[in-house]
Amino acid sequence: MGKRKKAAKRPQSSRQKVPLDTAFTCLFCHHDKSVTVRLDRKEGVAQLACRVCDQRYQSKVNHLTEPVDIYSEWIDAADAAQRDEPAARPAAASSSRPVAVMASDDSDDE
């Protein structure tokens, strides 16, 4: 039996894998690269925080989630909050007691 020939090296393709950003511009204070995203895949939670103005956002993650995905979700959530879309916001906790309305004593008709 003869020796195997070494496989010829393939020329590297012109498209190289470019890593995605992990530091982003803050929507509120507009500082470049001040927002960082931490993914905890074991717990299934992502945390986004601005180190300048301390804005924070938290979201669920799966095995395909990348930091840019969490940043995009944050932008969408901020837009929805600005438009006051009640369907986009989670229901706020409320007490079961009704709010008491104070009666005004401005009537001098007696």
UniProtKB/TrEMBL annotation:
Any one Gene Ontology molecular-function term assigned to this protein's record: translation elongation factor activity
Main location: nucleus
Ranges of Low complexity composition bias in the record: 88-100
Keywords on record: Elongation factor, Metal-binding, Nucleus, Protein biosynthesis, Transcription, Transcription regulation, Zinc, Zinc-finger
Domain of life of the source: Eukaryota
Positions of region (Disordered): 81-110
The keyword Transcription regulation appears for this protein: yes
GO (cellular component) term, any one: transcription elongation factor complex
InterPro entries recorded: Elf1, T_Elf1_sf
Protein's GO biological process: transcription elongation by RNA polymerase II
Compartment list: Nucleus
Function noted in UniProt: Transcription elongation factor implicated in the maintenance of proper chromatin structure in actively transcribed regions.
UniProt xrefs under PANTHER family: TRANSCRIPTION ELONGATION FACTOR 1 HOMOLOG
Assigned protein family: Belongs to the ELOF1 family.
Protein name per Swiss-Prot or TrEMBL: Transcription elongation factor 1 homolog
Organism expressing this protein natively: Roridomyces roridus
